[in-house]
Design a protein that fits this description.
Distance between the termini: 44 Å
Strand content: 5-15%
CATH superfamily of the largest domain: Response regulator
Keywords: DNA-binding, Phosphoprotein
Protein name: Response regulator containing a CheY-like receiver domain and an HTH DNA-binding domain
Radius of gyration: 17 Å
Order of helices and strands: EHEHEHEHEHHHHHHH
InterPro entries: CheY-like_superfamily (IPR011006), EvgA-like (IPR051015), NreC/VraR/RcsB-like_REC (IPR058245), Sig_transdc_resp-reg_C-effctor (IPR016032), Sig_transdc_resp-reg_receiver (IPR001789), Tscrpt_reg_LuxR_C (IPR000792)
Shape: globular
Number of strands: 5
Strand order of the largest sheet: 2-1-3-4-5
CATH topology of the largest domain: Rossmann fold
CATH architecture of the largest domain: 3-Layer(aba) Sandwich
Mean pLDDT: 84
Largest sheet: 5 strands, parallel
GO molecular function, one term: DNA binding
Organism: Hahella chejuensis (strain KCTC 2396)
Structural class: alpha/beta
Length: 221
């Protein structure tokens, strides 16, 4: 029986490299490639028995850790491995704190990426060898906002992503093929869940997750 792995990255060349690593790691595998958080949501719905998601931290529809937090909140049984250009200990630690099953630097050689995929499919949490020895010394942190973010439904998260891109209710309704009244209902619900009063506060809170990631990278660099 073949396994199903979803590769979520907005760079076609890197998706191709990851696909090569996946096929090297797993003998019988179906690979689904997506390039945004919205298409990732669609892929998870269309492939409910997926075994693993390889997720780039920064891609369309997500800011910093928000995509990971959403995935863990909505699909807790689906392992997510972060594949990132960042190799900072603080960023890696935060990714693990937010529920990632592993962290693969984009600079890792193909064989190492294949080993990581095999390890996570076997139920392990995988980190690069040099990181695993140091990670416990990095202070764990937790964000109340991330817990709230994890409670959003897929559609609410998609609407939130569109708000952060500055889209108007009318544009969101058109893109999602729903009425403006439905969009307003989603916005009201997500404001309540996130504990914010308006779209500006919501956007700032989400963007803060990206700033937080960048700050941690700068501090540990």
């Amino acid at each position: 029986m073949s396994q199903q792995i979803i590769i979520a990255d907005d760079h076609p060349l890197f998706r191709a490299a990851l696909k090569q690593a996946v096929t090297q790691a797993v003998r019988f595998v179906d690979v689904v490639e997506v390039e945004s958080i919205a298409t990732l949501q669609d892929a998870v719905v269309a492939n409910p028995d997926a075994d693993l998601v390889l997720l780039d931290l920064n891609m369309p529809g997500a800011h910093g850790f928000s995509g990971l937090v959403f995935m863990r909140g909505q699909y807790p049984g689906l392992p997510v491995v972060i594949v990132s250009g960042s190799e900072e200990l603080q960023v890696i630690r935060r990714a693990i704190d937010y529920g990632a099953s592993g962290f693969i630097p984009k600079s890792a050689p193909l064989d190492e990426i294949s080993q990581a995929i095999q390890a996570v499919l076997n139920g392990e949490v995988w980190l690069p060898a040099d990181v695993a020895a140091k990670i416990d010394s990095v202070k764990a942190e937790h964000s109340d906002f991330s817990e709230r973010l994890a409670t959003l439904t897929p559609q609410q998260f998609r609407v939130l992503g569109m708000l952060t891109e500055g889209m108007l209710n009318k544009q969101i309704a058109y893109d999602l093929d729903v009425s403006e009244a439905t969009v307003k209902a989603h916005i009201t619900a997500l404001f309540r869940k996130l504990g914010v009063r308006n779209r500006t506060q919501a956007v700032i809170a989400v963007q803060q997750m990206e700033v937080e990631q960048q700050q941690q990278a700068a501090h540990s660099g």
